[in-house]
Amino acid sequence: MPEFSTPHSVKKADSTFTQSEMIRSIRFAIAAEYEAIQIYEEMAENINNKDAVKLIEEIITDEKVHVGNFLQLLRILNPEEEEFYKEGYKETLELLEK
Ligand SMILES: [Fe+2]
Q1: How much distance in Å is there from the Cα of 42 to the middle of ligand 1?
Q2: DSSP three-state, residue 34
Q3: Does position 77 have pLDDT exceeding 80, yes or no?
Q4: What's the sign of the alpha-carbon dihedral 70, 76, 78, 83?
Q5: pTM value > 0.90
Q6: How far, in Å, from the CA of 62 to the mean position of ligand 1?
């Protein structure tokens, strides 16, 4: 989610991101998308207006697509990282099979 607690959060940087900064910013964006999903799900569960809930649920779906957008971008820009995720997938399956 955007950080509004300091005025520097909207200040344009003096230079563009390095490769590692860009990758970190994408990870941050993925986390922000998950945070948005959490907030909107909580809203949908607690708002007593059918139309508003319908819209929020549509936005939740959009945010999940955004997670996929950023994950795919991360895969393209930092393919080595996916190996760690694959290791986690495999490890989980092995643990669940026990
Ligand atoms: Fe989003």
Answers
A1: 16
A2: helix
A3: yes
A4: positive
A5: no
A6: 7
User: How far does the centroid of ligand 1 lie from the alpha carbon of residue 18, in Å?
Assistant: 23
pLDDT of residue 13: 75
| CA–CA separation, 97 and 74 (whole Å) | 30
Q: Ligand 1 center to residue 93 CA distance, Å? A: 30
Q: How far is CA 35 from the centre of its chain?
A: 7
Domain positions in the chain are 18-97
Alpha-carbon separation of residue 38 from 26, 31, 93 (angstroms): 19, 11, 26
Alpha-carbon Rg for the chain in angstroms: 17
